[in-house]
Write a structure and sequence with these properties.
The chain is an alpha+beta fold and 199 residues long. Helices cover 30% and strands 28% of the residues. It has helices at 20-26, 34-37, 44-61, 111-126, 141-149, 181-185, and strands spanning 3-6, 10-14, 67-73, 79-87, 95-102, 131-137, 153-158, 174-180, 197-198. It has a 9-stranded mixed β-sheet with strand order 7-8-6-5-4-3-2-1-9, with helices on both faces. A hairpin with a 3-residue loop joins strand 1 (3-6) and strand 2 (10-14).
């Protein structure tokens, strides 16, 4: 297993060419896709032919330091979803997006916050990044709760992308949260769940 980062309950690893079925299963749950596609699953051929090859190519582009990472439970090894930490394709390399998509079985257990907090630590303390941002639909309270627990600040409201107008609450647009390296460093270093080992 090509481990990227570990937390108390999670192991994050780099995806491999054999992981298409994990992504297909995750994106086939209407509840998981509720605020992304209106509940429609991602077509399997899109995952196999475009999404997974792009994930693997991003490891090459960023030396394995940034990209999309599979998350597994340390308790039983189960795939719980993925986290991402990566810049925009044409954006500044020291400003990266934080994201997460978890299976329903992982909801409500604090795993999204735990994994995301560890990624923020890696971003600022190891990779020397300047800003981490995250976006979600205004009505996606679960995702916004994670951003707020991470003490990210609401930076702006954003329009709904044209390909997401079918999503519940699309008329309310989206939100962008941000946290800077300085803001991270000003937080209590003993904050809950902050400890993580990285490789």
């Amino acid at each position: 297993m090509d481990i990227y980062l570990e937390t108390e309950r999670l192991t994050l690893r780099r995806f491999t060419a054999d992981d298409a079925d994990l992504l297909i299963e995750l994106d086939s749950d209407p509840a998981v896709m509720r605020y992304l596609s209106g509940g429609a699953p991602t077509p399997p051929e899109l995952v196999r032919e475009r999404q997974l090859p792009n994930i693997l190519a991003q490891y090459e582009k960023w030396g394995g330091d940034l990209g999309l990472f599979a998350a597994h439970s340390k308790e039983d090894g189960a795939f719980v979803g993925w986290f991402l930490l990566r810049p925009e394709p044409e954006g500044p390399p020291d400003e990266v997006e934080l994201g997460y998509r978890l299976r329903q079985a992982a909801w409500g257990r604090g795993l999204g916050t735990e994994g995301s907090r560890a990624l923020l630590g890696k971003a600022f303390e190891e990779l020397g990044l300047r800003v981490v941002w995250a976006e979600t639909m205004s009505v996606n309270r679960g995702s916004r709760n994670i951003m707020e627990k991470l003490r990210m600040s609401l930076a702006e409201t954003i329009p709904t992308p044209p390909d997401m107008l079918m999503v519940e609450g699309s008329e309310l647009g989206g939100v962008r949260y941000e946290i800077t390296k300085e803001q991270w460093e000003q937080q209590d270093p003993r904050r809950e769940g902050s400890s993580a080992s990285t490789t």
